[in-house]
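Dear colleague,

Thank you for sharing your sequence with our group. We've completed the structure prediction you requested, and as agreed, I am returning the results in plain text so they can be pasted directly into your records. Please verify that the sequence below matches your submission; if there's any discrepancy, let me know and we will rerun it promptly.
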Amino acid sequence: MGSDLKYILARATGIPAIFNIINRKRLLVLAYHGIYDGPRNRGGLPPTFVHLDDMIAQLRWLKKAYRITHPDELLQSIETNKPLPP
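Please find the predicted structure tokens below.
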């Protein structure tokens, strides 16, 4: 099954939204597999690559919707065994 089809099916079933609701109070780690700039013609890039403008828009939205934790804050929380703020 092509990876584009997997993403379409996942969105159509609502599974990502359900997963987000279930894990609402858990740490969410965001990782971009690839970022590209320039023309929007992706050519042979995988569907996991995001245009730089889209990534910036996504990060702005995330900053409004979530509390962003710096990696050092996460590491300190792990080392001291203290929970992160909500």
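Summary note from our side: DSSP finds four helices and two strands in the chain.

Kind regards,
the structure core
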